[in-house]
Amino acid sequence: MTDYSDVLGYITKGARLTLNGVQMALAVNPRVVRAGMPFYALLLAQNTLNAPVELSVTLSLPARDIRRPTGYFAAPKEPTVVRLRPAEAGYLLMPVVCHPDTPAGDNHKLGMGVTVKPTPKAQPLRPESGGSPVDLKQLNQKRRAALEKLREFEYSIAKRRLRDELEATFKVIQGLRQQGERSSKGGWFSLWNMAEDASPSLLLKFYGEALRRQVLPQIKKSVMFEPLRKATEERFREAGYPLKPLEAIYITKLLTLIVHMADPGDDTFDHLGSHNFNVASLLNGDVPDDVRLPRWFEGLVRGIAFNEQILANVPAFISTRLYDALVRDAVPFAFQSIQMVTGEDLGSEEEIRDYTDRLIKLLHEPNGMDFAHTYLPLVMGGAIVFDRVVVPDEKLEDTLRGMSEVLAMRDAEWSDENDLVFLMMKDLVNRSLRLFGFQI
């Protein structure tokens, strides 16, 4: 989807009432209520603004009858508060209990009072029409099923005079007397929101300013290295393969470089760089509708759409919640770099994808990680880009020579299965020493 989909309009076939920037419609589900059985008041709501809004919703039950002064219907008396994110569409279910003695009738009226509290200075985001037509092909099966089910109901946009209150009519028929009145749970259910449903293009357009001003300054190499190093050590320790300090540094160099390439600055023309990772360039011009983002960056923007407090500490979110996504971006890049330097054929794109899936799985198993998957391609990739991320007070010659010592410590793990990985890593270290003029 390249635009804000008019989910509410698709469900109601165009009917809508707009109150302070929120489009809405009311239904009773089921519309024919059996006495003694619970039912729901269903409020569809679609935020048209570029900021969150708060809805305070209160039910007005049908008038009391002289035969039952306490009323035939019961529902929570306290207002239900719903916070809609920018452009979000969804529905609120509020359970109502119908007493077994409720007389049959065709014209019971249920009211729903809605108070909308928009964020100050909020601006329209969706058009009055609600947005673009819903493209069901772009929705997952769960979303499609929910929309089709909701389309079966009858919606009202009738507004009670002088009040911000919708009204819907429903029918009660004779029911069987129950032993006690059932209770049902309600709540808010999102049908379209930026975090889950917006296209990468739409996300960049909406959050472009925040990304430029608040995110890019936080993903500099000097900022990202330490959180990623700590996360790397922890992840491999939990996977049963504690890293030597230099191994963690090499892997962290690779991961830090992947993040850095989102805003490479003067490194744009690095021969090992990847323009596919350069997000900053997209923020300075027109964003293609079919744009593809690095996995970790798309995860970051969707996380911000879900909770903008992430903007306060982007490195922490990347190094924890997005660690797997970052590794998924790093593995193919590392393989490509290794092939470029060594000339070795390390597999097809499909084989590398399968290898990446396996590596991620091993990182989640208590004793899953081993030498081969740690070094190929993560440590080896770090060995190739080791000079592109320099730690404060680091001496590159010591970093390279230290890796030779680490490999000697791993000799006990040398086997026929990982022989090639050992030899390739030793060769890479020696190549780098020669390239930088260090004595072997």
Describe the structure.
There is one protein chain. This protein is an alpha+beta fold and 440 residues long. It has 2 domains: 7-197, Sandwich (Immunoglobulin-like); 200-435, no CATH class. The protein has 14 helices and 11 strands. It has helices at 7-12, 141-150, 194-197, 200-215, 221-238, 245-260, 280-283, 295-306, 314-320, 323-342, 349-363, 371-384, 396-409, 419-435, and strands spanning 17-19, 22-29, 32-34, 38-47, 53-60, 73-74, 80-84, 89-98, 105-118, 165-173, 187-192. Strands 1, 2, 4, 6, 8 and 11 form a 6-stranded antiparallel sheet that branches. Helix 6 crosses helix 12 (371-384) and helix 10 crosses helix 11 (349-363). The radius of gyration is 29 Å and the shape is elongated.
Brief overview:
The protein is α+β, with helices and mostly antiparallel strands and 440 residues long. Helices cover 39% and strands 18% of the residues.
Number of strands: 11
Which structural class is indicated by helix and strand composition?
A: alpha+beta
| Biggest sheet record | 6 strands, antiparallel
* Average of the residue pLDDT scores: 92
Strand content: 15-25%
**Helix-residue proportion:** 25-40%
| Helix/strand order | HEEEEEEEEEHEEHHHHHHHHHHHH
Globally, the shape reads elongated
Using only C-alpha atoms, the radius of gyration works out to 29 Å
pLDDT < 50 stretches: none
Q: How many DSSP helices?
A: 14
Overall number of domains: 2
Kindly report how far apart the N and C termini lie: 56 Å
